[in-house]
Amino acid sequence: MTTWSEFYEKYDEWADSTILNRISSLKDMGPSDEITEVANCINDDASEKLIKKAHSMGTVFSPEEIADIADYIEEDLTDDLVERYMSTRKPLSYKDIENLDGLVSDQMMDKIILYDLGLGYGFTAKQIIDLDGIVSEAVLTKALQISNPNLTKRDIENLYGVVDEQVLFSIDRKLGTHVYDDEIEEDDWEEDDDEEDDSYDYADTSGKKTGFLDRLGTFLFASSVDKKMREKREERLQNEAPAWMNRKKKYSISERVYVRRYGSRQSGTILDVNTNGYAVKLDDGTFLTNVRESDIERGLF
Question: pTM to 2 decimals?
Answer without folding.
Answer: 0.64
